[in-house]
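Collaborator request, handled under Task 6.
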Amino acid sequence: MSLCRCLGNRLKLFSNIDLTINRYISSQINTPENNFINVEQNSNFRKNLSRTHYCGQLDSKLEGQNVSLCGWVQKKRFKNFLILRDVKGLVQVVLDDYFLKQQSNRDMIEKLQEESVISVKGIVRRRPQGQENPRMKTGSVEVICNSLEILNECRSKLPFEISDFNQPNELVSLKYRYLNLRFAKLQQNLIIRSNFVNKARQFLNEQNFVDIETPTLFRRTPGGAREFIVPTNKPGQFYCLTQSPQQFKQLLMVSGFDRYYQVAKCYRDETFKPERQPEFTQIDIEMSFVTDEDIISLIENLVHYCWPFEQKPQIPFNRMKFQEAMDSYGADKPDVRFGLKINNMTHLIIKENSFGINRIDNLLENDKFNVQAIKIPKENGILTLKEIEKLFKEIFEATNFVETEDKDTFTFMAIKDSDATNIVKLLKTDFKNRLFAEMRLDDEDTCILLCSCNKNKALEIMGKLRLNLADKIDEKNLKLKGDKAILLRDPKIFNFVWVVEFPLFTWNEENNRWKSTHHPFTAPIDEHLNLVKESRDLESIIGLHYDLVLNGNEVAGGSIRIHNSELQRHVLENILKEDTSKLNHLIEALSYGAPPHGGIAIGLDRFIACLCGTQNIRNVIAFPKNQAGRDLMSSAPSNVPQEELDYYNLICKGTE
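Structure tokens returned to the collaborator:
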């Protein structure tokens, strides 16, 4: 019974751990009953933890009180002071003459290494006048040490210093991730994540959702990303790790559960980017008898309920059609915190009145010829034309062109007052005048032009250039103005937008076949249902697909599903040319009275990364893989002896 009471008290304690984020909000812990551990309730609790308070909770209200603290030695100063750190923050501990009078104490402090784990008992006092530290939350007080016990010594040499002023490189930080996680910022990130997930569970439970776990060992799925294959001891037979619980959650709707969710681990073996991991987490949701409006409303209210900061986002969120996002932002996940929109200037072209540049004039008869433009207003005109052109060249050279002749049609130009890239000087005055009027260019404004015969690639390039321009402008502004700089992509600003009306199918130029823009289970809008059934005008069909975008990151995506068995088979076999034998279980299930249903998944890692103001999702995952998909801490993946592989009937090629 004593153990049960102890565990109960610990659960109560940890449920009261509130988020502290220096950039946004002050500590939410402000009442005495939340500040302190009630050690009188259970003597075992006091004995086990050996502390009465957390370091970061001490303030002048506790002056004169005896406290017991536990934590890590952040820093030793002048042999008379040390900084003690725990999960709540820092506090200064004073080793006064009375404490140091004993030789044993002096010897202990002499050999005490930073990052050693200690227990301190002492009295809280105000710092002497003039010695306060406003940069520390506990900077108005200190603890006079009466006794100190070393609970565990740390090695004398650390791989890197645990200090906010020191940021180890990624190679070292991932190898020693357990030390890297001692940094306050990473701990705050994980606390944000924990609190968000807990509140999401509360919200969904209150909305009558059922938390159901689904398998991660499944079978090969046609289409989508590359999957991780798991061998079995049955020759030639393999599991695959699930990319998502997509099929299972639809089967649960067929089963009649009506409202399902889970915090699901997913796996994809794909090219690793800063925002990708081979394993990732999503809050997975599915509902029966709903419309897309129902799901959008649910997610808006969930986000509002779970929001970790004082100023909550306004709902409903803005919406944008897919085509507008592509035409104005060059991406289906637009960052709408700033302007620099893309403008189509093709209508300014008068075929009878050439540009005056041969390589462009020769393309005017091509129906695919287009001109895209971006205006950088003078208040953001901190970049030189050479810097802008360099950014463009880096993006252009990294762009993959299926048709190499398309690449030769691209011409980049930039104008700013009397300055211009070389080729602009050949432009006819008439075109320049019409361009300046249409773009409303004032003195010191910059105009960027991109001419080509491939509009989709031009928009893709201009979309990337737009983001790179904003990043470069912010970088230079920060160097010039520091904290006073007004940033285009300010991480403290959160702009949500729903992107809707996606095309149901997209033509894959590399494979010369249609592919699903979202996934093959997405339903068309009612008005286009017959087009799908008749397999005609596929490029014009709109799907019931919706993405939630936050600051240029897709943080959630979902759709209304096809719930008719024959329609699902038709889409897979006749339009997408997929082998349906691997999906017979789902197609058959839909024939047994499947309800209309739809769902969505929140990309938890990416969403939390946005909330924490980091571009890298590794900063919000406790033990992530590096960009090559390796765990540097444990050296995984690793070799397996051949005798163990024999059990799975496997032979590895190219290994020693």
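The cover message to the collaborator said: "The chain has 21 helices and 23 strands. The longest helix spans residues 455-481. Please let us know whether this matches your experimental observations."
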